[in-house]
Amino acid sequence: ARERGLRRLNLGLTPLSRKAGAARAPLWRQLGTGAYPLGWLFADGEALRAWAARHATEWAPRYLAYPKALELPVALADLATLNARRR
Q1: C-alpha distances in Å from residue 7, one per residue of 3, 4, 70
Q2: pLDDT truncated to tens, each residue of the chain (87 aa)?
Q3: What is residue 18's predicted lDDT score, i.e. its pLDDT?
Q4: So what's the pLDDT on residue 82?
Q5: pTM of this structure
Q6: Which of helix, strand or coil describes residue 1?
């Protein structure tokens, strides 16, 4: 990114670790751990975070709260719409 003159590079969202309470996690969480950008390149969220740490100079934590698990897709769709409007 620096070679192209970019000041920032958004690597998207990094999933939570699969290790933390994975057996007790809700079904949507267990299914969602594998669904992330570039997921086929990395075994899990830890590998993705390790790769991103080598390339990112600044981390900005972002949290998403939603009332019910079934409303997560709606919340993510709303975020995608807002992000698309900023471009």
Answers
A1: 10, 9, 37
A2: 567 776 765 656 655 555 555 566 665 555 555 555 545 555 566 776 777 777 766 767 777 777 887 788 888 888 888 877 765
A3: 52
A4: 81
A5: 0.36
A6: coil
> Domain-by-domain residue ranges, the chain?
2-61
Q: DSSP for 17-78? A: PSSTTGGGS-HHHHHHTT-STTGGG-SSHHHHHHHHHHH-S---------SSGGGHHHHHHH
**Per this entry, what is the length of the chain?**
87
CA separation for the pair 14, 49 (Å, rounded): 7
Q: Side chain identity at 60, as an amino acid letter?
A: A
Q: Which residues contact 16 (CB under 8 A, 6 or more apart)?
A: 29, 33, 45
Q: What is the DSSP letter of 2?
A: G
CA atoms of 51 and 47, how far apart (whole Å): 6
